[in-house]
Amino acid sequence: MTSVRQFKLKDLLRINNVNLDIFTENYGLSFYLHYLARWPDCFFAAENSAHRLMGYIMGKIEGKHDNYHGHVTALSVASEFRRIGVSSQLMALLEQVSEQKKTYFVDLFVRVSNKRAVDMYHKLNYIVYRRIIGYYSGERDEDAFDMRKALSRDTDKKSLISIPHPVRPEDLDDD
């Protein structure tokens, strides 16, 4: 059985099993603390009946006007708990918070090569809004898809009008 709850400070000591994946971004402790302090209502943990951390979602609410949206900064599920709906549960919670805050859409960035994640997001009704050239850097630079899902406030679905040409990270708007 899976229970989902607000992420707690002590969970930071338990995320190692969740972050052991080539597609998972690992952040410094201060980054997690900043999100926990600034957007605690967008940070959730899933655990099993033995209180083992199964996964987490870290998000935020940002933007202005019709770009006011929820953003998934990180979604990670430990390999042994994948394909049982944990990601869907966590995404649903962030979407629910975003709806309550009356945002227009939820977006996220995902590696183009992470086919399983891209397919999962498609099943959750996210579309590829645009491709970002060289968004991920490191040993191997890689493009990202900016994927979006319109929420009820976006009655005309304007947030889903895709940009047909790739953009660079420096071209992303900050609002």
Notes on the structure:
There is one protein chain. The longest helix has 15 residues. The chain is of the alpha+beta class. A 7-stranded mixed sheet has the order 1-2-3-4-5-7-6, sandwiched between helices. The model has no long low-confidence stretch (mean pLDDT 94). Helices cover 22% and strands 32% of the residues. It contains 4 helices and 7 strands, in the order E-H-H-E-E-E-H-E-H-E-E. The termini are far apart. Helix 3 links the parallel strand 4 and strand 5. The chain has a single domain, classed as Gcn5-related N-acetyltransferase (GNAT) (Aminopeptidase).
Describe the structure concisely for a colleague.
The chain has helices at 16-19, 29-38, 86-100, 115-123, and strands at residues 2-6, 43-48, 53-62, 69-77, 105-111, 127-136, 142-150. With 175 residues, it is of the alpha+beta class.
Q: Whole-number average pLDDT?
A: 94
How many strand elements? 7
Proper CATH architecture: 3-Layer(aba) Sandwich
Classify the fold: give the CATH topology. Aminopeptidase
C-alpha termini separation: 39 Å
Total domains: 1
Strand content: 25-35%
User: Uncertain spans, ≥5 residues at pLDDT below 50?
Assistant: none
What is the CA-based Rg, rounded? 16 Å
Q: Which structural class is indicated by helix and strand composition?
A: alpha+beta
- Compute the number of helices: 4
CATH superfamily name? Gcn5-related N-acetyltransferase (GNAT)
What does the largest sheet look like? 7 strands, mixed
